[in-house]
Amino acid sequence: MIxxxxxxxxxxxxxxxxxxxxxxxxxxxxxxxxxxxxVDAGPFFAVRVDQVVAATARREWHEKLRPILDELHSDLLFxxxxxxxxxxxxxxxxxxxxxxxxxxxxxxxxxRPIDDDRPxxxxxxxxxxxDFEMFWHCAxxxxxxxxxxxxxxxLVALSSVADQGxxxxxxxxxxxxxxxxRGLGNAVVSAAGNWILEQGAVxxxxxxxxxxxxxxxxxxxxxKYTYAAMISWVGPFQAPPQPLGxxxxxxxxxxxxxxxAMNQDVLEKPGSN
Length: 273
What we know:
Layout: H1 4-18, E1 32-34, E2 44-49, E3 52-57, H2 62-71, H3 74-77, H4 80-90, E4 95-105, E5 120-121, H5 124-128, E6 145-151, E7 154-163, E8 168-175, H6 184-198, E9 202-206, H7 212-220, E10 224-234
Parallel strand pairs: 1-3, 8-9
Antiparallel strand pairs: 2-3, 2-10, 4-9, 4-10, 5-6, 6-7, 7-8
């Protein structure tokens, strides 16, 4: 069940992004608004809280979006299938939809930090040396705060705290390639969450469904799944990766499909080689 107290903490942000109040109950037809001016919510934005769905989009897309919102069950709308169907409407205008994005929230009653003295707040000089192309899930130098772990003089894990408005602070996290799986991400997220609560703000984070380890780590720290979002950007359509991690260490994971049956239309990410 959704923690309604946590939902109320982020409701102002959700409603500001939608441009209208989030319904309390699901109706036969999800409300569809026009993207509000002056809000960084993207050309298309939708949220799902249990079975309640609400969306906002450019006005010129409404006629084609309405049948999708009405005919696709929320389970399908907030899935890879929904991402594809919605993008059929937006891609002619060079806008891609992405999701679903599970969104996690915490407060002082749910937060369970870990006892780890490795992370510390980065100084301005340390921050200036961070390669944000490597730590690309973290907010850049303009964020409120950053917490890192160094090993042998090298930054191996980083978290960031970004102000989303409405007293909501979003946590971003990355670990240096090859250093995952050692609790580094957990430690820097814990440090960031502690700092956010000390400021009297609401900790927020997101982790895609396929990023199983990150979602598990957020839940271990007391962050609760509160809602899902479908977001968008101006740019090409991007397919999500395969699930990360293993269900149980020591048990191998195999592709269900042979290589020839994989989607041959998916191209390499530019600059990834």
